Each structure stands twice: as C-alpha cells, then as structure tokens.
Amino acid sequence: MARDEVRIQILVDADVARAIVVARQLSREAGLSTPRSTMIATAVSELARNILKYARRGSVTVRAIDRDGRRRVEILATDRGPGIADIETAMKEHFSSGGTLGLGLSGVERMMDEFDIESAPGEGTRVCAALWL
Amino acid sequence: MLDGETVVHENDAAQAIRLRALYQIDEMDLERIRSLGSALDGKIDAAVARFYEWMRPLPEFNEYLSDPAVLERVRRLQVAYWVDFLRGVIDAEFVASRRSLGAIHARIGLPLDTYLGGMNSFLMTFSEVASESDSDSFDTSHVTSLSKVLHLDTAIVIDEYNAITKTIIAEQGDALMEMSTPVTEVWADILMLPIVGVIDSRRSMEIMNTMLSKIAETRAHVAILDISGVAVIDTAVANHLIKVTRATRLMGCECLISGVSPAIAQTMVELGIDVGTVRTTATLQDALGMAFHVTGHTVQREA
Ligand SMILES: Nc1ncnc2c1ncn2[C@@H]1O[C@H](COP(=O)(O)OP(=O)(O)OP(=O)(O)O)[C@@H](O)[C@H]1O
Ligand SMILES: [Mg+2]
Q1: Each residue of B9-37: pLDDT tens digit?
Q2: Given CB 3.0 to 4.6 Å as the disulfide criterion, which of A61, B214, B218, B247 pairs with A7?
Q3: pLDDT band for position B174 (cuts 50, 70, 90)
Q4: B160 and B47 share a domain?
Q5: Are B270 and A110 a contacting pair at CB < 8 A?
Q6: Distances (CA, A) of B142 to B89, B127, B287
Q7: Has residue B300 been placed in a domain?
C-alpha cells in the first residue's frame, strides 16, 4: 500500500538512513521523477543530519499532499534544539558551525521548489521544503 | 527498578518545564503530592511490600528477582524512588533519575507491559494505603494530581526506553555493516569497493580505513569506488568521498568514483558540490577501462 505521509523520529544514525529510504520511496510512489525523488531524499538526509548534529533529536515528516490545486511532496523537519540565532548567515553557502562544507541548508534551498525556515534561539528549528509534481 | 547512575543532561531542566506544562501540573498538584508524601510517611515500606505480593506470582519475578540480594537492593531503590517521587519536585534531577530508570529497564530487557503493570499495581496499593491512613486528607483531587505526575514520570521512562531500544537496533545494524566494505583486488594493481545503501558517518570512516589499509597491503595504483548502489550523496557523504580520494592519492593511488547516475549527478550540481579534480564516471565499465589505461594493461578479445 502506498503511504502518503511518514513521520520519523530522528535519534540515531539509523533513523537518518530509514528516513532517506522512506522519503525516496514515497516520492516515487507519489509520481516524482527519479532525479527529483533523489533530491527529496537528499534534502531529507541534510535536514535529518542537521537535527542529529545540532539538536540531537527531532523529527522529519514527508508527505504527498494537494496544495492550491497542485500535488507536491513536502518535507517538514522540526526539532526543539538550540535553534539558529542568525538564519541569514546559516543559510549562506560554506557557512558551518560544525566544521563541514556548510552547503546543507543552502543546497536544500537550491534543490527545492519551495523552502522555508523558522528558528529562534532556545526554541528549536523548523524547516519546510517541497517539490511540485 | 535497579541501580544506575544518574547524569543530568543540559536540557533536562527545560524538559522538566515542558513536561509540567504538557501534563498540566501546577503548584497545587505538587502540593497535593507532598501532602500525600507526609500522609504516607513511614508507610512506604508497606506499600512496596504489597507491590511484591502482586509481583511474586508473575513469571517476571523469577526471571529478574529470584536472587535475594538483587531483590533486597531493588526493594531499597524502590523505596527511595517513591520517597523521591513524593517530594513533589519536578526538576532536572527528577527528569535525569527517571531517564536512567528507563535506561536500566531497557538494558535488562524488562518488557514495557510488566513495567506499566507494576506502576499500575503500585498506584492502586498506594491509594489504598493512603486512604487507610487518613481518609480526610485524601480525595479525588489527590488521585488526579497523583495520576498526572505518574503519567509524566512514566512518559520519561518510556521515552528513554525507546531511545535505548533504538540504539540497540542501530548497534545490530553496525554489526552487519562490518562486512559491508569489501575491498577486492579485481586485477593486478586495481582495487574495487562497491558501496550499497546509505552512507552514514560511521560507514564513511570504515570506507576510508579499509581502502587505505588495502592500498598499503596491495600497493595498488588505482582504486575504484563504485557508488551506483548508494541511495543519496548529500554534502557530508560527498565531503567524505572527496577526502577519501585525496588520501588515496597521497598514498600514490588514483581513486576513481564510478556509477554516478543521472539523478545523483543532477542532485550534486543542485546541492552545489564541487568535486574538484576527482575523476568520476557514469559506469563501472568506464572506470575499469580508465584503470586499465592508467596501469598499462591492454585487454583484448582473442582473435
Ligand atoms: N537543526 C538545527 N539546529 C541548530 N542549528 C542548525 C540546525 N541546522 C543547521 N544549523 C546551523 O546552521 C549552520 C548551517 O547548516 P548547514 O547544513 O548549511 O551546514 P553544516 O551542517 O554546518 O555543514 P554540512 O551540512 O555541509 O555538512 C550549521 O553550521 C548550524 O550552525
Ligand atoms: Mg548540514
């Protein structure tokens, strides 16, 4: 049976792996092309890894949904971690507080048709991203 | 409820505040818990004794508590647990001690239904003992407050139980993974490592280590990393693969990355990953051809 919504708690590396696999499958079943399904899975990977790395735990939801009369696959990544004080800087290419490439968030924004991030220090972070079918 | 060290985490204090709001526990509730605490002063041993009357006929009793020394230790900790509970304070230490309780139960593999059954039986014996002691000071509002705090308490224990169970599953996965980085010398001077599935940080490290030690061992001049079976190449994985190619190059071995599918190629471009001088090919066959060229082999069909 095709699922059109999956929510995965992110606590350990294995959860990230599961989220990637499930996101790719759901995207394909929803009718996204292989490259675009791979982009959804890659975005899930980036967001879930950020959760593990910076917030330690959180959750990722992937769903196929109709909005404004059009079908889309969307990702919702939320955590109640430390949050991001300066979103503009965090979104910059090659900015990382964790010593890696710093391409995650900016890359996800480039890959997706829609991207939205909300975050406040001490409150956590919420990223919503989507690809239209 | 066995022994375990309690380590307070940085977000336990915030967690305590969040959970109090979630279970709608106010100062009145905590005050009622404390008044229950004083009503039960000196009677907790009796309540714990009743709990064991409930527990004794169950198969779990024999499985976990047949050793009298263990039983005595658990009993003492249990008394301490309830004394702590009846202090009516929900703070970082409270959260931390409940977390460690969940961890212990998960590690010994105590089924959750046994734990919940135990809590339930406890609540019952407990209300009985309290109402016997002084019926005036114990009414329904006390039961409500008691059950709110018990739910909060149980939620922390289960959450941690869940986290530990996930860690155990991940560890089992790791054990399987040990076998999943098979570097083989496919030809004289040529190594190959096919990667399948999802690459996490642990696996990245393994790829690096196995590859480098195999190069040291075989003195190979070309290594092919085939990623056609990899689910996604995100920035962390790309970063790592680039590092692997740099490290092999330092050891005098050219590393080719093969099996870059159209989907992966497009995604990497969108992500903004620059592979620099890393040599990549679409198919394993192309990489093998390149490897033969680099090592000076010519492969010919017999005339
Ligand atoms: N969920 C989060 N909670 C708190 N901070 C975050 C979160 N996600 C990202 N950040 C902050 O935003 C910065 C940029 O994130 P981004 O994913 O772009 O790069 P990175 O994770 O540092 O590196 P890369 O993803 O390339 O390995 C991070 O360094 C971190 O400071
Ligand atoms: Mg990142």
Answers
A1: 888 899 899 999 999 999 999 999 998 88
A2: A61
A3: low
A4: yes
A5: yes
A6: 16, 9, 73
A7: no
Residue in A13, A49, A107 nearest the CB of B170 = A13
Q: Tokens 């033969």: give the residue.
A: B292
A82 exposed, middle or buried (CB, 10 Å; 0-12, 13-18, 19+)? middle
The DSSP annotation for A30-72 comes to HT--HHHHHHHHHHHHHHHHHIIIIIS-EEEEEEEEEETTEEE
Q: Map tokens 């009357």 to a residue.
A: B53
Total count of residues recorded for chain A: 133
Residues B158 and B27 in one domain: yes
Does residue A124 have its Cβ closer than 6 Å to ligand 1?
no
Amino acid at B132: E
Do residues B62 and B133 share a domain? Answer: yes
Enter the tokens of residue B241.
């693969």
CB–CB contact B232 A16 (8 Å): no
In a domain, B7, yes or no: no
One digit per residue, the tens of pLDDT, for chain A of length 133 reads: 456 888 899 998 888 988 999 999 999 999 999 999 999 999 999 999 999 999 999 999 999 999 888 999 999 999 999 999 999 999 988 888 877 788 899 999 999 999 999 999 989 999 999 999 9
What tokens appear for B262 in the block?
């159209």
- Of B158, B175, B192, the one marking the end of a domain is B175
Provide CB contacts within 8 A for B140, sequence distance 6+.
none
- B65 Rama sector, left if φ>0, alpha if ψ -120 to 50, beta otherwise: alpha
Pick from B175, B203, B233: which residue ends a domain?
Answer: B175
Cβ B223 vs Cβ B185: under 8 Å: no
pLDDT band at B123 (very low <50, low <70, confident <90, very high): confident
- B127 and B255 inside one domain: no
